[in-house]
Amino acid sequence: MKLDLDRIDVRILQELQQDSSLTNQELADRVGLSPSPCLRRVKALEESGIIDRKVTLLKRSELGLKLTAFVQISMDRHTPDRFSVFEEKVNSFPEVRSCNLVTGQNCDYLVEVVVEDMEKYHDFLLGQLTRIPGVSGVQSSFLLRSVKENTSLPLGHLM
């Protein structure tokens, strides 16, 4: 798909990535448009699928979610059925923040898990994650400190 975005579209995307709660008037002011054309552009970006969704980001530590684990998962067989069952099950776990099928590692999936503490992680690992059919190996690493966390995508290449 060829993207046909101009500088104003890119500015709209940059602004919304930083704060999706902006009113249309605030967004229009920031990108130098009047409200009606700004709203039309946002709607077009939504309809095209470029804007996937709008969310509110929550602060983990304030909610008592103090443990983040990055879990490398190995599967016993590399078959579509095995992967499908794993992915469906992992998608049902609210503790899983992200799950990615990866290559170049000694694992098949890299999963980010957020829970209250080590005891909850232990329960989740043994009671849920390792019980998924096909999981043959698990290696966990734990977040000590987040150096950079960003939800924005780089858009400089579009300008």
Strand fraction: 15-25%
CATH class wording of the largest domain: Alpha Beta
How many separate structural domains?
2
pLDDT < 50 stretches: none
Measure the end-to-end span.
17 Å
Helices and strands: which structural class? alpha+beta
Tell me the series of helices and strands, N- to C-terminal: HHHEHEEHE
| Level-2 CATH architecture of the largest domain | 2-Layer Sandwich
Q: List the quaternary state of the chains.
A: single chain
> What overall geometry do the principal axes of the alpha carbons give?
elongated
Mean pLDDT: 95
CATH topology of the largest domain: Alpha-Beta Plaits
* Strand neighbour order, sheet with most strands: 2-3-1-4
CATH superfamily of the largest domain: Lrp/AsnC effector binding domain/regulation of amino acid metabolism (RAM) domain
Task: Compute the CA-based radius of gyration.
Answer: 20 Å
Number of helices: 5
Helix content: 25-40%
Q: Main beta sheet, described? A: 4 strands, antiparallel
Q: Write down how many β-strands occur, each being a DSSP E stretch of 2 or more residues.
A: 4
Protein name: Leucine-responsive regulatory protein
Domain HTH asnC-type: 5-66
GO molecular function: sequence-specific DNA binding
Pfam families: AsnC_trans_reg, HTH_24
Write a compact overview of the structure shown:
By secondary structure, this protein is of the alpha+beta class. It has 5 helices and 4 strands. The protein has 2 domains: 50 residues, Winged helix-like DNA-binding domain superfamily/Winged helix DNA-binding domain (Arc Repressor Mutant, subunit A); 82 residues, 2-Layer Sandwich (Alpha-Beta Plaits), CATH 3.30.70.
